[in-house]
Write a structure and sequence with these properties.
Elements (H helix, E strand, L loop, with lengths): L2 H14 L16 E12 L6 E12 L10 E6 L11 E4 H7 L1 E2 L1 H27 L3 H14 L4 H13 L3 H12 L10 H13 L3 H14 L4 H14 L2 H14 L4 H14 L1
Antiparallel strand pairs: 1-2, 1-5, 2-3, 3-4
Helix pairs in contact: 3-4, 3-5, 4-5, 5-6, 5-7, 7-8, 8-9, 9-10, 10-11
């Protein structure tokens, strides 16, 4: 084939190529999930003794579900010393992620996944023990989980609930400080535990902690009428009637059809009258 013939053939191929080669929206694509690493170069020493070292960090990466028109991101979370994903997550734009992060398939399969599975089993055993009323056994299992990952949300909530169910609010109050510092504790996936913990704080008469807890939660979800209602109840039991009314009004601003809040506010106004 001559050079001229090759040009003609390529032109014909280009003409037959579809204009839109994007992947159709109904095509299912695998989401990124697993362990990846990043590398940074650091300089050690000075002068003639200086040398460069490569530092490697490991991350658990997961691509969240997003709207089709949203900019794709990957949530990355560092591995702790026990090779468990722990601590705050960072949202990394997909192109940046693909450039900076390298897959560590073997490390994930041999080290990280078995440890994650074992941790999950430990927390499940603890939850089963608590459901059955075996509260001291539950404490043991929760503490075993927290030894591996002190930031584990389910284990922290579960241990706090165990202490309150055992009538030991002082221990629950100590644990409270750790829980309010965990951003992940207020994620939607932990909504059930989150609500149960807040209710038990109030029922255990840990009213200052309950107010602080719901205040922290409102920073994460400022448009949740149930949070305003719950903090109003905590204020009421603490004797702060003005703050109670204010938060009931905020709950009704968000949801004017919130019947429990309407009834509570009517009761408060009647008491004032």
């Amino acid at each position: 084939m001559t050079q001229e013939e090759a040009k003609t053939n390529k032109a014909e191929q280009d003409a037959n190529m579809p204009e839109d080669v994007t992947i159709p929206k109904d095509v299912k694509r695998e989401k990124i999930s697993g362990v990846f690493s990043t590398q940074t170069v650091a300089k050690v020493g000075t002068g003639t003794t200086s040398r460069k070292t490569i530092q490697k960090a490991y991350w658990f990466a997961e691509q969240p579900e997003m709207d089709d028109d949203a900019v794709p991101v990957v949530a990355v979370q560092p591995l702790n010393r026990n090779n468990i994903p722990s601590g705050p997550k960072e949202q990394v734009p997909l192109p940046d992620f693909l450039e900076r992060f390298s897959p560590e398939v073997e490390f994930y399969q041999q080290e990280v996944f078995p440890r994650m599975k074992e941790l999950d089993s430990t927390v499940k055993r603890a939850e089963e023990q608590r459901d059955q009323g075996a509260l001291y056994s539950a404490e043991f299992e929760y503490n075993a989980a927290l030894t591996v990952d002190e930031n584990n949300v389910r284990a922290n909530f579960g241990l706090g609930l165990t202490f309150m169910e055992r009538g030991e609010p002082e221990k629950a109050a100590d644990l409270f400080e750790r829980i309010v510092g965990l951003d992940a504790a207020f994620d939607p996936e932990h909504k059930h535990l989150f609500n149960e913990f807040g209710i038990n704080l109030r029922k255990s008469q840990l009213l200052d902690q309950a107010v602080d807890y719901y205040t922290r939660a409102l920073e994460m979800a400022p448009h949740d009428e149930n949070l305003f209602y719950n903090i109003a109840r905590a204020y009421f039991e603490r004797g702060d009637k003005e703050d109670c009314v204010t938060n009931l009004q905020k709950a009704l601003e968000i949801n004017p059809y919130f019947e429990e809040a309407k009834a509570f506010l009517a009761y408060m106004e009647k008491q004032e009258g």
